[in-house]
Amino acid sequence: MQSNVSRHPTTSSGRRAEGAAGVTQSGRGPTARGHGSVRGRVALVTGASAGIGEACARRLAADGARVVLWARRLDRLHSLAGTIDPGWAGRNSSGAASEGSPVAGVASVDVRDRAAVFAEARRLADQGTIPDIVVNNAGLAAGLAPVAEGDPDNWDRMIDTNVKGLLFVMRAFLPHMLRRGSGHIINIGSIAGRQVYPDGNVYCASKFAVRAITEGASQETLGTGVRVSAVNPGLAETEFSIVRFAGDSQRASSVYDGIRALSGDDVADVVAYVAAAPPHVNVADVLVLPSAQAGAHHVYREPGE
Ligand code: NDP
Ligand code: 8X3
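Above: inputs. Below: predicted complex with NDP.
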């Protein structure tokens, strides 16, 4: 006769999967259910001065992580640090960590600058704040034009930031994570990494590259305790289109005409879920779209007034 009694999870050898502190490999207590937590972990967010990155930093800090904030605009990072930790401004002008602060560091880093990325990573390692989580978010689109008319300087900006910058950040932190046997890289891809749209050529290519790099690194780190994931948003109303259209805010806002686009916070919710997954779970690849979008080519817009 079949028993209805449920059993604790076991390893393949029949042993309970238990860590040193008597906690299961799920990172939770033996009988607890539910998602994991980022509490007490160090989370680096690149591109934290605006949009999705800023929202991720706020959210991860609110969930109990200690955040390290990178972007080029240092003034914005310091004001974000001040909203996360009201004591920040009084204590910190250098951007260094102070004991007990939810902000573990702030630095002006252009991810295109390989030497700067490696130097800042070394600084974090030296002060014992190698991130447990890296939200590899810094990125941009520059222009929207057919290849035949595109501006090669814009191509450089996109490829150098979205592809090489993302790689430099991974290269700087993965070896530390591998040595430690734990860590989580969360790359911000895009629907544009799955489907190409007219005149999106190079931006889409950069996000297709993010997909390939994420999948490749995920294969390479298999069995090491390090996870690599991608969160791929659709249309999100941030400063993205203002940057793409070089400050033309009217053209930028027309991208979102008639739809309720994602906010940075909507994407941060997903990133927070991915980051908090217990160690035996890798939420490897998430596509998050506004309800009014069903792909790069399918957007439902409410008719204008
Ligand atoms: P925003 O323009 O609002 O924010 C971009 C962030 O990236 C800023 O903090 C900016 O900071 C930073 N950044 C840009 N270039 C660099 C650089 N060279 N070095 C360091 N930081 C840099 O755009 P989003 O928040 O929308 O974009 C964030 C990510 O999300 C990007 O990778 C983008 O491709 C992706 N994405 C966006 C979508 C959208 O519809 N908005 C949809 C899908 C993906 P600073 O200028 O201070 O350096
Ligand atoms: C940003 C979203 O559709 O503008 O990656 O490329 S889209």
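The pocket of NDP (ligand 1) is lined by residues 46-53, 71-73, 110-112, 137-140, 161, 165, 188, 190, 233, 235-236, 238-240, 243, 264 (CB under 6 Å).
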